[in-house]
Design a protein that fits this description.
single chain; alpha+beta; five-stranded mixed sheet; disordered N terminus
Length: about 140
Amino acid sequence: MPKHAKQEAISTGAHLFTFAFRVVSGTLDPERITGELGLKPCQTRRQGELRADGVIFTGMWAYSGYEESDGPYWETLEEGIAFVLDKLWRHRQLIDSYKSEAELIWWCGHFQTSFDGGPTLSASSLSQLGEFGADLFMTQC
């Protein structure tokens, strides 16, 4: 969804979601993760890189199914989960091996202009997410 469409959807009271899988570690080599999984990340950071505000980043490899760091935006969280899980499912054993050296996180951004509800997750989606053994982090934007 183009940025202007996101802004328009939010201004009309719609809820939008981003969803990505993250591998986070102070010793992470993002290029190694990319090579092993054969997937192009939407965002990477090396340990020690500085944010604009001067805070030091922790190493990270993130995957949303798209190479852009901004998006995609989903009208339901279920759509985002299904999309990312479909692409990562066959890699789950290799991903599981990263637990010994990194934190695994499902990252969800929830964009809204009102407090008239939030995401609903099906038992099936929750079960599949649980098979990865990663924590779910949701942030409201």
